[in-house]
Amino acid sequence: MASPIKFAHIVLKTSRFPEMLDWWKNFLEGQARHENQFISFISYDDEHHRIAIVNFPNLEDRSATACGTEHFAFTYASLDDLFGQYERMKACGVSPYWTINHGMTLSAYYRDPDGNQVETQFDAMTMEEADAFMAGPLFAANPIGIEVDFEALIARYRAGEGVAAVTDYATAGK
After folding, report:
1. What distance in Å separates the CA atoms of residue 67 and residue 4, rounded to the nearest whole number?
2. Of 15, 54, 92, 130, which sits with the fewest C-beta atoms within 10 Å of its C-beta?
3. What does the alpha-carbon distance between residue 170 and residue 12 come to, in Å, rounded to a whole number?
4. What is the pLDDT of residue 174?
């Protein structure tokens, strides 16, 4: 039996169709590959769609205590790209509710109009380094990570500190 070759897309159902379309197209800097009053297929890369949003006008809001997906994440190619996304969304009036150094990633978490949680992240380690970190005592002691201030990190980075220093887990939150 073979494992999948990639994660292709996620489909969200909503009763806030126009708001969700606007938010996700802006958030991903994506475009609809096909869209009508019932469904939109949005992509930001070479995949035919990464997110589909389906219009169900009479849905009830999901309770915060209901089972379901906690969040999903998008990886950015560079720290510049992650910080650029943070600043672009902030300029649109959308701020993350949580910014954290997970050790293997530096991450910002957002909520869309339906309350779905989405993480933006930069891989601060190679896969080999991340595997070793996750198998080690620092991760075992705190598998969630350390809250950080993106504004302070951006200031340090723009002042000339390197990627390794800005994303260093040992000094995160200090």
Report:
1. 25
2. 92
3. 37
4. 76
Phi first, then psi: give them for residue 152, nearest 5 degrees.
-65, -40
Cα dist. 95→29, 79, 88, 89, 107 in Å? 16, 17, 10, 6, 13
Distance CA(112)–CA(13), nearest Å, equals 12
Give the integer Cα–Cα distance in Å for 166 and 6: 30
Flag residues of the chain having pLDDT under 70: none
Three-state DSSP at 103 gives: coil
Q: Which domains, from first to last, does the chain contain?
A: 8-59 (3.10.180.10), 70-174 (3.30.720.110)
CA angle, 162 then 163 then 164, to 5°: 90
CA separation for the pair 10, 49 (Å, rounded): 9
Tokens of 139: 């991760």
Length of the chain: 174
